[in-house]
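Any chance you could type out a protein's amino acid sequence plus the matching backbone structure tokens because I've never seen that pairing?

——
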Amino acid sequence: MSAGATDVVLTLTERLQPLELAVEVAWWDAATHAGDDTERRRVEAEVAYTDALADPDAFAAVRDARAGNGAEPLVARQLDILHDAFAPNQVASDLRQETVELRANIESTFSAHRGTVHGEPVDDNTIAHVLRSSTDVGERKAVWEASKTVGAAVADRVRRLAHLRNQAARDLGHRDHFSLTLATTELDEARLFATLDEVDALTASTFTGWKASLDDALAQQYGCAKPDLRPWHYDDPFFQQAPRLVAVDLDPYFDAVDLAQRTIRTYEGLGLDVGGIVERSDLTPRAGKNQHAFCIDIDRAGDVRVLCNNVPNEQWMETMLHEFGHGVYFDAVDRSLPWLLRTMHALTTEGVAMLMGRLVHDRDWLRAIGAVSANDLERVAPRLADARRAQLLVFARWVLVMTNFERALYANPDADLDTHWWDLVERYQQLRRPDDRHEPDWAAKIHIASAPVYYQNYLYGELVASQLQDTLGGEGALVDRAESGRTLVERFFRPGASLRWDHLIEHATGEPLSARAFARQLAQ
């Protein structure tokens, strides 16, 4: 059976590798140049790929090979990965085709859509700038509302997409798409929600106290009573980031900074070269381009790229550090591994990305890259730790919203999701919903359509980042420390997907993943 299993893996690798390459190239082209042609080519590539994954004979061969005994460990691991790739695609071709087309169409809308204020289009960077800097409440409310208009544009299609995904999941014997996705990404639903509950308990009282202080400051700044505060009084359209009013404002220090060069400099200090990734990337904003950020491994052989929409500020500096954290991980996976294993679990790559993004509030890093003068650093240093803790709190509470919402979305796509969204926001983020607003604000979050049932990986990623940081030596361990870079490469990056995510974390840190390191960092 060992030889048979090896043959199955080799045959399917040869079949899937060029199809995945075509998908990744088409996906990149559609994100960087939205249009009918790039959308069509993306759909064609994805349909061809899912057709291959839908092959019932190939899936049967994988199941038979897994059921046998004697496969070498790396072969057995590849069979597990093939099983989880094939299983969700064992559905009717017309259902897969419609799902791929609808998702691509929704994502094209996100790339092309711009909200308007007083009849003029505003992009995400403009909206972010107003929410970070304006004291005009009317202006803030107008751009916040503009940021949500894409939700109304896509909501009906997102509900339809959820129905299609659920139909596929139920045809395969799963409760819904939420359940299917966890089952085929090596995640246990009971364990996930136990972790969510643990993080909720760890952060609830601290967040409540912090949020009360924030609201006191905001009410004073805007000359209103605390009960009158609404989502547009905060710095981010989704309250994903801690407002600088009670954290630290680093924007002036990045105002004239080349973010790409600072990113290169950061990774050089770890002995990691990202110059080639920078050259292949698309880092500046323009019309017809996806307004978000991501890193993509095109071929599992070195063609790694980042998409950003940089303007020189703290947010995009953190985003660059984050996305190139994905990049160095992709780039350092051992290329002598079989192609199927030259990747990694989403939560481990998110852990590295979040670990690197935290550097934006690291005193040693700010000093090393020359963004902040010695005098200014002494002035802002006392608030850096507060800002770091605040961001951990705010983001953890935001993930609780997203993960619980997505479970509810797939439980019933026709429910009153507009109300349920704000119920969760009020519970976990303690934001008051806008008065008399009945809009699909949930649908304005692109991940719900394009990266479904993914947000739990960010929460696990925060736990991974905290555990890795402790392993490397705590704060400052990622600044001009080549030994930290070597440790990450050898113990965490090079194994790729040859180990399950939980085994990899234990291998790299010496203990199973837990919330202990995260809790310690919140308490510091």
Notes: Residues 1-90 form one domain.
